[in-house]
Amino acid sequence: MKTYKEVDVVLVGGGWTGGILGKEFSEAGMTVVCLERGGPHTPDDFSVPRMRDELAVGQRMSMMVNTTDNTETVRNKSAETALPYRRLGSYLMGTGVGGASTHWNGHTWRWNDNDFQIRSRYEAKYGKQYIPADMTIQDWGVTYAELEPYYDKFEKVAGISAKAGNVQGRKIAGGNVFEAPRRSEYPMPPLVYGYAGELFAEAAGKMGYHPFPRPTANASVPYTNPDGVKFGECQYCGHCERFGCEANAKGGAQMTVIPAALRQSTFELRTYAWVTRVERDASGKKATGVTYTNTVTGEECFQPAKLVVLCAFGLNNVHLMMLSGIGEIYDPVSGKGLLGKNYCYQTGSAAMLFFEDKHFHPYMATAGIGAIMDDFHGNWDFDRAPFGFVGGSTVGTAMYGGRPIQWHPTPAGTPAWGSAWKQETAKWYDRSMNITATGTVMPFRGNYLDLDPTYRNRFGAPLMRMTFDYQDNERKISAHSADVINRIAAALGPTHLSKASARQSWSSVPYQSTHNTGGTIMGTNPGNSVTNKYGQVWQVDNLFIMGASLFPHNSAYNPTGPVAAIAYMAADIIKKVYVKQPGKLIHA
Amino acid sequence: MSDTRDQQPRRDFLLRSLAAGASAASLPLAAATATAATAAPTPAAAPSGYLWLRPDEQVFVEALVNHMCPADGLTPDGVTLGLAVFYDRALGGNWGQGDRLYLQGPFKQGSANQGYQLGMTPAQLFRAGTEGLADYCRATHGKPFDRLPSEAREALLKELQSGKAALPNGVPAAVYFAQLLQMFYEAMFADPIYGGNQDKQGWKLVGYPGVNTANKVNIIKYANKPYRPEPAGIADLS
Question: Taking CB atoms and an 8 Å cutoff, what residues of chain B touch A427?
Answer without folding.
Answer: none
